[in-house]
Structures are given as structure tokens and as C-alpha cells.
Amino acid sequence: MKKLGVGVLGVGEMGRRHAENIRRLVPEARLLAVADVAADRARQVANDLEIDHAFSSLNEMLEHRDIDAVIIATPDKFHAKAIEAAAAARKDILCEKPLATNRADGERAMRAVTQAGVRLQIGFMRRYDPGYDAAMKRIEAGEIGEPVMFKSLGRDKDVPPIEAYRANINGMLFYNNTIHDFDLARWLMQDEVIEVQAYTTVAIRPELAQFGDVVASSVNLKYRHGAIGNVESNVQAIYGYDVRTEVVGSKASIFVGSLEKTPATFVSAAGGSRSLCDHFFSRFGDAYVAEMRDFVHNMLHDRPPRVTGEDGMRALEIAIAAEESHRQAGAPQRCTAEHVELLGATSAQA
Amino acid sequence: MKKLGVGVLGVGEMGRRHAENIRRLVPEARLLAVADVAADRARQVANDLEIDHAFSSLNEMLEHRDIDAVIIATPDKFHAKAIEAAAAARKDILCEKPLATNRADGERAMRAVTQAGVRLQIGFMRRYDPGYDAAMKRIEAGEIGEPVMFKSLGRDKDVPPIEAYRANINGMLFYNNTIHDFDLARWLMQDEVIEVQAYTTVAIRPELAQFGDVVASSVNLKYRHGAIGNVESNVQAIYGYDVRTEVVGSKASIFVGSLEKTPATFVSAAGGSRSLCDHFFSRFGDAYVAEMRDFVHNMLHDRPPRVTGEDGMRALEIAIAAEESHRQAGAPQRCTAEHVELLGATSAQA
Amino acid sequence: MKKLGVGVLGVGEMGRRHAENIRRLVPEARLLAVADVAADRARQVANDLEIDHAFSSLNEMLEHRDIDAVIIATPDKFHAKAIEAAAAARKDILCEKPLATNRADGERAMRAVTQAGVRLQIGFMRRYDPGYDAAMKRIEAGEIGEPVMFKSLGRDKDVPPIEAYRANINGMLFYNNTIHDFDLARWLMQDEVIEVQAYTTVAIRPELAQFGDVVASSVNLKYRHGAIGNVESNVQAIYGYDVRTEVVGSKASIFVGSLEKTPATFVSAAGGSRSLCDHFFSRFGDAYVAEMRDFVHNMLHDRPPRVTGEDGMRALEIAIAAEESHRQAGAPQRCTAEHVELLGATSAQA
Amino acid sequence: MKKLGVGVLGVGEMGRRHAENIRRLVPEARLLAVADVAADRARQVANDLEIDHAFSSLNEMLEHRDIDAVIIATPDKFHAKAIEAAAAARKDILCEKPLATNRADGERAMRAVTQAGVRLQIGFMRRYDPGYDAAMKRIEAGEIGEPVMFKSLGRDKDVPPIEAYRANINGMLFYNNTIHDFDLARWLMQDEVIEVQAYTTVAIRPELAQFGDVVASSVNLKYRHGAIGNVESNVQAIYGYDVRTEVVGSKASIFVGSLEKTPATFVSAAGGSRSLCDHFFSRFGDAYVAEMRDFVHNMLHDRPPRVTGEDGMRALEIAIAAEESHRQAGAPQRCTAEHVELLGATSAQA
């Protein structure tokens, strides 16, 4: 059986998980190499996973002949450049979200992919979650009628350490967290967001203001075909990792989300209590595996990826508009949809 | 035992329920009369509840000497005038939400109450629901720390008949539905909303546009002390009557809401299913009783009401700002908080 | 409107609640009197409910001409005698469960009712709970197919005070608690229990053994038509008041039960917690009202009661068999079904 | 890194899953071979998993020098013989439940293991489920106080095909299904079951009677230290795969179980519905992986297995007693605990 040769760039928490999944859970793939600017970390992961190659740069890894596809799991701001390099080397790409942390980078990356004729998938793994997948199937079957309202929230347990903010390696809240919900907002509604309005807060973490970042946000959405929506994000919800989405339709509605960590309930005179999900790997561990299997399968059989670069660019445009609204004290901002469509058209040829 | 003599104005669905509650479930009150412009309806209710007096106007009822307090449950746009009349007759008042459907009416009603030295409670019955009450107790005890985010949604099963829109007897969505959430937004957060932004939709019911009304809305909130929030409303959610609220705090969070109609679950090869709550009396039936008992008790013992006219005016100001944002295509609008405070100061003397 | 004149015998916690319900929530009834061997308690309740008559014995109350029906809420062991007296006075009767605490008493009570030609309802109020009612409607509609397995549990928060055991005024666990589940076992399965087997424990409360009572039990059931079942009871579950029932059918199954006290959830780093139901009035408050309304309505309109004396006798027979199994170290015991049928036939003529 | 060489015997649904788990998800193990009397099936699995050796008999596989441990996943009645053979070949063993389908076989297997000085784990994978694991940790920490009542149920969606009954390759309901709950009954209660009583039914599947088997059962349990319990099983619950357990303690209680297949809820005017879990791999997929990792780790590091052969023998003794009670129309039966202890003592030396 022919297998897809894969290299992983960036083996922090996320990249290491991808590498493990490829190594152990994706029979159609062969993990050939990992690369990380922290060479020790790359070697350690290669050792743990019993693979031969550990590199300290993407370029070194790209020279490996048998690598057909590259998984990009670097900090957010390096995504676009890595896409450009991998595309230039004629590798197919699965890049973690976001596509980029600004429009110019995103466009350059898209152009590089189109010109090289390679394929690009963006890591919106929630689309592979059994709950979201079941919801989408019912929506596509017309069971909720016309969608009227989109609601989604994503709450993280703990804010990243202040060093991460200082290093400025990830985009702000909208690029790093909310972008998942912006993707769901398009996908589940089968419609485009044309305008957004954002209120944000640094309550309880005023020091984030200096980095242009926020603790929580509430973003209102306006859709092209008349529906509306809202997306809430919070990086310090303390109680757990909580992702929930609702689509209210003209005939029925769908809710997706679960909060419990285990199916055990403790009941005492003090009440009933359950442990709560506290990490995205607990909630979406299976989705990451399904995502990788689907990507590998499609690449191996010359099919288009299920989540495209265009999807990444459109979600990015929503994040950009949301950040602009945040900067302008809540003034609504249009998403530059036409612009995206132009790129999209090009991208669709790839 | 001295009892509070009570008259009920307006005995449609809501007023009739109040009258029944007073007659049967509030031992400290004596239901003396009901009044309704539909004289037949008033007589029918008086007959069913076995009370002596049915009037066809508020003024007739106000002449009844033994009436100490009046419950106002007319269509929304008559609330303010009824408050003025009842205040002039020196009756204490429990008025259904909203206080009024515009600022001028609201202010006139507030002034009448202040000048007459009577007491006014607004019917925000959710504050009496065991779930919301339990939430507030924990918030007041500091258990969630500093509140960061307020979320609330209210979805009705079926849109009112088009005749109700034509008659224009209730305020639009924000005044008739969302106002409950605007009250919770202040009460649970112990803070004031200073700015709002609203997107609305007439999707699936375009004929509502001619009445200046909408099917659904998403209103973003900005608070004085830095917190933010969002309130969603929908008059045609089809699947049921669904009211849920969340307060995310710096130390913990609280969710309030329940959707099931009965504690029965049916499980078959097609899945597990439960009947859903479909009416506000199913969800808040006990809250209406607790509200009336509390109002009656406070009036009887010369105490201030738990939910004041000022609460009604402040919630109204948020609704007015939300409607203005809706009219201006989503431009954020300030709530005229100072104005309310002035009135509030006066009102507090009552 | 003609009303049913009602007197309540025994105004402890349960009887007082019945009296309140009749006084306030059952428009077709008029509460005329209460009686209690504790004369002070009777007077207090009469005073609180603003009714004229408080008696210190059933016989005195029975002399009141306008009393059409008597509610019996004495301690269990006095039920049968009270039924006999009320029947002799030609009053219709709603008697709290159990019908009696032994077979001889139960049979005497049944005979008295039959001979007097009055009607007798037993207080199995769970049949009036919206959850159980919804379950039964689906079962009767054939939606679960053929019932295969019956499961039910009833757990109380706290064991009664030891004085209650010393006074020996209630039957043991099976007569006072499990009898509710024995009734559901017949009603929901539409079949008769023909044999039972019981294990019991005095774990954590060994002092109950001297009273012939137990802390918890697990009773296996065998049905006439081949189905089987199990009923668990516990008087000291500490965490709350928990009643749940399942019927597993050949096509589908139904679960009834709820544990939460309010629709509020508190989530913190320690997990998610909810307050639990802690008293049967919280869980079945509405069922008691519905039960009384139905009884009153049927008596007033000369209809048979919905839960009959025969139902009480059959549940009692199951309890007697369960106690016998308990005494014989778990040996299975037949229920004397034929015997009951004989009585039932007579009772059905009433 | 030294790895444990593993061979899998029997690659039907269960064995194939074990083989996949070892191959992909247990880094400390190396899957060397599979064996199955259906040689084609063995070759297919070997091919799919890209391993070298497929055998058509256990004996052939046991000759493979590098195999350190054998996983036994044959039909139930071959378990004991396979254990004997593997033990004779000095292999450590993980055998699917039950240890055997009768006492003589079980004892022979235990003796073989003891004499060979190898280690034997029985596949009670529920002990590795995060829910059951969390429950046990709280119980061991004393959080529920003294256990008073054990309740467990296991319901399968569909009865096995009639051919499986004809072939008589698995034990009856108690050996094949209920044995999981019998193991939990000992483990979670940290106590021994000394007596059982069983009612069973062939309702809706009378043809099972000819095979000595049943559709559903309710088994009452008596514990050595005074607690009691009940275990329900059903092979044809239609609505899904449902496993739930409760331990009621003197201070608090614990419930384990979940029924939903995905975190998606569909709400319409017909009610709210969720897909239900329909297979043990959906519910316990992660537990099977954790079980295998733990077994492999312990074997590799010369530690005793977490679930022992003695555990398997004791659960078997409960099943034997339950079957005897079933045969004797529900007469209670003692578990031959002393006998087990004798074997246990020997086994503990291994």
C-alpha cells in the first residue's frame, strides 16, 4: 500500500500531537520527519516516536525527497511563511489555524499555494467532531429549515502565560481562538458573514491591553442572506474548556457541546457534581485524528481537501474585521468579502 | 389578619393568571375586583374566581375604597397611563413589564408615582425563579468573583398572530421580550449597561418589517465597570420556550436554564427524546406566585418593593438604545444613564 | 357551583399540605374541617387556613353534616380503622398510602368500604406526576411495545428520627416507602406481580433491627406474564430525595426521574455542581395538587376514583410478601393474588 | 527501548480491536502475530496491520520465540483451554472475560497459571474507563463513607443472532454480559458477594429458552459485610448500549454512566432528541486502550496485573451462583467464596 510521506513542522503541544496521530493512528501515512527551531525538542519527539529524521528548520526537512505533505504547527505568526516555503517545494499542506495573522501574509500564502498548484487544508478540526458533524448532516438535510441565528462560544480554562503575550508569537484572541467559531459561523450556516461588531474586555487582566489583546469578547455577526449571529470568546473562564454552538432554524434547532470530563457524577448533601472538560485535547482529541486521516486520504487519492485555504482566508477576514471593530470602540466593520472571492476563485483552480 | 385589597387591571392570559394567584395562592391578599375593557371577560373571570366586582374600566375600579394595590396587566402601551391613574388614586402598583414603550411615557409614569408617594414594582418575575434566585445568592456571596461576561437568551415558541402586530398594542421585540434579559443584565451583574449594539433579522417573517418589528435579535452590551455581554431574543424558535442565562466570573461561573417539560425520557432506536417546555407559565409559574406574594407582603408591611420603578426605567432605557441601534443599522448607542439616575434619585424617595 | 365538602384527618406535614391544597388550589372543594388527636395542631391549621372547624377526633368530624369526603393522613397504622369509621359514616375517602400495615386490617377496611357503598382512593400521587403521566400515556399507546423489565428506586435524604421507630406508628420500609414503587410496578406494567424476593440491610443503622425495620432494600419482582423487575428503597441516602423509574420494552423504553432542585448550575475549577431535590414536596408538589383535584372532581360527579382501594390492597400484598421474604432471609414469596382478586371483584361493584 | 512481544489469539471483532490497539496505540508493545482458526481472517488482519505472522492455531503461534504475552479473544468456552496452553508455554496472558464458562474449566486454568508462574489478567476493561476510574478513586478516598447499596445495569442494543446461540460458543447471559457487573460489584464495593438471587425472562424471545439462555435478568446481591445490591442485564434493549452503575454510601453516592452518542441535541416542536450510544466500542473504546497499555506496561516491568485471575474466578463464581438461582426458579444461592479464596491464595504467589 502506497503511503503518504509526511513531515511535521513545529512540535510543541499541538505539533507533537499531530506527529503522534500520524505515526500511530493514520495507517495511510508514514511520518518521516519532524522539524522545530528547538532542535532538542525535534530530536526528542523523533526519538519518542521512533522515526529517523529530526530537523531544526523547515528548509532542511523540505529537502527530504519522500515527504509528500507538510503539517504546519508553528506559532501563528509563522504560518504564512511556512506555507509559502512548503508550497514552493511542491508539498501539500495541512496548516493549523489561522492561515495568517494579517491580510497581507494570508494573501501571499494563498498566492504561493495557487501558483505552486499544491493543496492546502486549514486545521479547523471542529468540523471533524462527531457532534458538529452530526449537526451539519442534519442542517444539510434541511431538517432545521432556514437558519436564522448562529451562536457559538469558546472558553478556555486558563489564559496563556504572560511570556506568550510578550513574545507576540500568536495573533490576538480573534486569530488564535475565535477563528474556530468564525469558521463554524460560515460552515454551519452555509452563508457568508458580511459585517461584524465587537465588544471586548480586559477585565481581571488589564495587563493584556499593552499587547493589544483582550480577555474576552462578544462579536455580533450579520450574514449576507439576512441571518444574524454572535460569537463569544474567553481565554480565562477558569472552570474549564467549554465550546458550544447553536443554530436556530425556521423549523428546528441544533445545539452542540458538552462540558463533562467523565461520565461520573458525585452526589452528596452539598449537591451533585461532575468533573469538567479542561483541555481541547479532551474535547476534540478524536476530531484531530479524524482530521488527519481525512487529509492524508484526500492527498493520497488526489482529491481536494475538505477544509480549504479559501476557508482559512475567509475566517481570517472575519477576524480582521472583528479586530478593527475592537480597535474602533465597537463600530461595525464590513468583511471584505469580494476580495476573498477573487482569491477564492483562483484558489479553486488549484 | 389584615389583608391587602387588590384589584387586577387587564385579565387576558397574564392578568387572569395574576388574579388566580392572588385569589388562591397569596393568603395575605384579598382579590376584590378585576377590570378589563372587555367587560365580558372581566365578568367571566370574576365569576370563575368567585369575587364580587368586575369593572370595564380602571377608573371605576379605582373608586373601590378597599383596594390598596393595583396589578396592571394590560397591553404594553397602556402600562404608563394606567400607572399614572393608579398613582393618582394613591394605590400601590405592580405593573407588568415594560414600564412603558417609550421614554416620555416612562418618565411621566415615574413622576406620577413619585409625586403620589406610592410604590411601584415592575413584573420582572424571573428574579423570583428558584434558579435565578440561587444564582444571585451565589453572586452576592462573591462565589464567582468579578463578573466578566453576561449572556442571556429568550426564545419563544411561536410568533404572536399578525393581528397583534397590526394592533400595535405591545412594544416591539426589545420592549416585550428582551426587556426581561435587560433587567437580568443589570441585576445579576450588579452593574449598569452603558452602551449597546444590535443586529436584528426578519428572516422567515419579512412581513414584520412593516410594523418596525423583527423576528430575532442579538444585542451586544458594554458595562460601566468593564464587563461585556450579549442578549439574544427570538419570537419564533418553534421548538419551545427557552430561557437561559450565564454569568462568567473571574473565579467561577453560573448557568441558569432548563428546557425539559417533564422528567420523562423516551429512548428508542431513533434516539433519546424529551418533551420541551413550551410556555412561560410552565417555566416561570412558580416565579409569578413568589413575585405576587413578595409584592403583597412588602406593601402590607410598608416596605419598598424588591423590583422598583427605577429598575423598570433603566431596563427601558436599554431597550430604547437597542431599538435605536437597530434603526441605525447596528451603530452602537449609549444608554442615557445619567438621565435615569436623576429619575432614580427622585424615585428612591418614594 | 356545588362544591365537595371535605374534612382532613391528621394534619401533620402531609395532612396539612392536603388541607392547604384543598383550601387554596381545588376550586371544586370546600375545606370544612380538620381533625387531629393533637387538638392544638388542628386548631392552628384551622386558624392558618381560615376555616371554622377543628376537631380532636375523627368521630366528631364525621358528625359534620356537610362533609362529603374525608382525607386520611394519619400515621400508617391508623389508616384502616379510619377508613372503616369514615365508610360507616357514608363518606367518600382519599386515604394516604398504605391502605393498611397488615392484611387483616386491609381486608377489614376494604369490606367496610364495599358494604357502605362509598368510594375509596389511595394516595399514590406519583400517578399524577407529569413525568409518570407522560410515561403511562406512551406505554398505553403501545410505543414501548411489550414491557420486559420494571426498575424503580426511591431514596430519602434522612432516616426518620428514632422516636418514630419506637412509636411504631408507621409500617416498616416496604409499607411506608416502597409501596409507592409497588404501585408503579403494577400500574406502568399493566400486569400483576406474582412473586417477590427481598434482600435488606441495616448497614450504618444497626439499631433499626430491633424495630424489625431496615435502612435499604432490593426487591426482585416476577410478573404474571413473564416480565421481571426490581425495586430499591433507601431511607438514608443523604444526598437528597431521589425517585426514578424505568420501563424497558420490546420496542423502546421510558425513564422517569429528575434530581435537580433548581435549574442553576455552578461551574468552577472544582467541577460543575447543582443543588439536589431534598424533599418529596419539591418533587411531587404538583402531583399532590393534581391528585386532590382529580379525586374531588370524580367524587363530585359520581365517578369512580382513578386509584382504587383494590390498587391499595394489591400494593399491600406485594409489601407483605416482600416483608415475608425479608424475614425468611431472602426466600422468594408468592403474592396472594387470588385473594386480592376476590376482594377486588367485590370492590369493583362499589 | 525493550518492547513486549505480543500475539493475539482470535481476531473476530474483539480480538481485531485488541490487535489494532497493540499495533498502533501501545508504544511499549510489538504486535508479532495473530492467530485464528479461520486462517483467512488471521491473514487479513495481519495484512491490514502490516505484521508478518498469521497462524491458524494457538500452538503454532506459541512457538514464536519473541512472543512474551498472549491476548485471548476467542469465543468464551475456549478461554480456559487457551489459558492452559499459553501458561504451559510460559507466556503472560490477557484473557477476555469470562475466565471460563464453568467452575472446573476455571479452576484448571487457574492451576495452570499458578504452576507455570505466569501472570494472568482478565479483560474487565470497565475498570479502566475514566468514569469508573474516577468513581473508584473517590470511593477509595473514603468520600462516600461506607457503601450500602450497589446497583448496575448493562443493556445491549440487539440480541446476538440465533446462530450464536445454536453454536453455544459463549456462556449464557450471566457469563457473557452480567459478568462485567459482577466484577464491578466486587471492585467498587471492596467487598465479596456471598449470596445471589436471580429472576430471568425470555419475554419477547421465547426461543432462547431451548439454549438455556434468557433475554433479561435481575440479580439481587448480598455482601459479606452487610451491604446489598442488584444487577440488571438485557441483551435486547433496542434503544442502545447502556451501562450504568451506582454506589450508594453512608456519606455520599456515585453514579457512572452516559447514554449519548455525540454532544449534539436536535430540538424541534416534537421535542428534544439525542443520538444514543449503540456499541461497547463507542462507550469503552478508550478503556480498551488503557487496559492494554496497563497490561503491557506491567508485564514489561515485572509487575502484577491490575485485574487478576482471582478476580476472574470470583466473578465467575457469582455468575455460576446466579445461573443456579435461575435454574432453581429464583432460590437464593451461596457463592462458594472459601473455595475461591483457596485458589486465590495460590494465585497470589504467582
Question: How does this structure look, described?
Answer:
The structure is a homotetramer of 350-residue chains. Chain A has 350 residues and is α/β, with parallel strands linked by helices. In chain A, 39% of the residues lie in helices and 24% in strands. The first copy, chain A, has a seven-stranded mixed sheet. In chain A, strands 3-2-1-4-5-6 form a six-stranded parallel sheet, sandwiched between helices. A two-stranded antiparallel sheet of chain A has the order 13-14. In chain A, a hairpin with a 4-residue loop joins β9 (216-223) and β10 (228-234). The longest helix of chain A is centred in the C-terminal third of the chain and has 21 residues, at 280-300. The two termini of chain A are 26 Å apart. Chains in contact: A-B, A-C, A-D, B-C, B-D, C-D. The interface between A and D is medium-sized, with 32 and 33 residues. β13 of chain A pairs antiparallel with β12 of chain D, so a sheet runs across the interface.
